[in-house]
Amino acid sequence: MPADSDLILSVNEEVDKDLFKTLPERKKHEDFIRRAVDLLVERVVFGRSARSSKVVEWASPEDIKTAIDLKPRREPVSHDELLKLMADVTRYSVNTGHPYFVNQLFSSVDPYGLVGQWLTDALNPSVYTYEVAPVFILMEEDVLKEMRTIVGWPDGQGDGIFCPGGSLANGYAISCARFYYYPEIKTKGVYAVPRLVLFTSELAHYSTRKMAAFMGIGDDNCIQVKTDKNGKMDVDDLEFKINEAIEDGATPFLVTATAGTTVYGAFDPLVAIAGLCQKYNLWFHVDAAWGGGALMSRKHRHLLNGIEMADSVVWNPHKLLAAPQQCSTFLIRHKNILKQGHSSDAKYLFQKDKFYDTSLDTGDKHIQCGRRADVLKFWFMWKAKGTEGFEKHIDTLFDNAKFFLEHIRQREGFKLVINEPECTNIMFWYVPNCLRGLENEPDYRERLDKVAPKIKEKMIKEGSMMVTYQPQGDLPNFFRIVFQNSALEHKDMVYFANELERLGKNIKV
User: What is the full DSSP assignment across 461-479?
Assistant: First the structure.
């Protein structure tokens, strides 16, 4: 038999051979990664954020299919070809980091959030047990506790999770509320409970109705409450509909209030709604997906007065706080409801005889199994900016929104939908020359409805900016600029107005 030293030498020789074989592969992949990152930094992060660049390179579906080979192929392509594909995908994608992308409730590319997201993807964790995600389990608990403290719950009491979007987070609120009042729902299902109804504003996010249908409660049992002219929930109508539902034999169990509605940016009267929830023993949920970021500002957190009385809250840092997509949180004041209502105790994953504290295996309280570490990018941003940095960001957004509001209030051709909006959503009509002075004509509203789509088409095809429009109730199409990017300045506010006037002044409808 060979001596031990000979065996060791033989093994080391094999290791060296294996290492030698892997070095060319590492060099090849390292070179590609560095070139890819350079492309991302130069062309995507910084090159496309210049005001002189286009917000979108408009192309028809046929043009994109011609420009980019979208079909998977049997044979691999070269690294040079991959880099070209990256450049082509970038060219024809909407430039959401552009200062003039103000189309949705998200925008901009935060450099710290981006690096945090890259680190997340490089580590490729799944957050369900401490053994596979030790840092992220602890990080998530600390970040969520701090968010609950900011909401106003004493010592950050309660629980929470990061979710894949605010829609699912609103679904968690419905699930937790239903389990809280009817724990038998978990084992016996909808057959064991009465006809449940919930209430939300007619201007609330559609996800509440969608999740009610998804969870077997039914769209018809998601009762819409009237709003006032500014988009805030009518508390008198809420109480009327609660009593109406009871008289109809239904069982009310949940009210979803909104702190920052999608279109108007309205904040429902949370204190009054909380009072009704206490009176009728209803779960009080606040969808602060959009407006929750205002809690970071001492100047603007008053908009959410009463949120501390909620049983649960949705707050999306990827919206007003500008964290990268997606970054959504569900916060709940009750400590154990999430776990009790959703756990399944899968023994191959959540063993109770592990060598560490298994209460840190938090994955059993959510309905997913594999789950991204969405906390990391937000935590990294928070470390880089501090709470005071987030506060400065929020205050800048509100200041820009106020400046734009006052600017267009003084300009000919602009007409406000709401004179004093609460959040950073500014809604208005642009009235072209062909319609000015014709407000009393019978076809005026019909013609005004066609203006925004025509201007939107021109701005998209030119790539000069991206602003959304929509109707609301019986109102004709109006524009909604959403300010979420604190890199914007007052001169940009003037640009928006000038560009809308340039594109729309002489159109014919």
Answer: HHTS-EEEEEEETTEEEEE
Distance of CA 426 to the CA centre of its chain: 19
Structural domain boundaries, residue 444: 50-56+94-124+375-509
The domain total for the chain is: 3
Do 316 and 211 lie in one domain? The reply is yes
Q: Which of 372, 395, 422 is the last residue of a domain?
A: 372
pLDDT band at 20 (very low <50, low <70, confident <90, very high): low
In terms of domains, do 346 and 480 share one? Answer: no
Clarify whether residues 400 and 366 are in a common domain.
no
Question: Using omega within 30 degrees of 0 as the cis cutoff, is the peptide bond preceding 351 cis?
Answer: no
Instruction: Supply the pLDDT for residue 494.
Output: 96
Q: What is the pLDDT of residue 208?
A: 93
Which residues in 52-183 belong to E strands, given as ranges? Answer: 101-102, 159-163
SS (HEC) of 360-398 = HCHHHHCCCCCCCCCHHHHHHHHHHHHHHHHHHHHHHHH
Q: What mean pLDDT is predicted for residues 42-56?
A: 85
pLDDT in tens, 318-355: 999 999 989 999 999 999 999 999 988 878 777 888 88
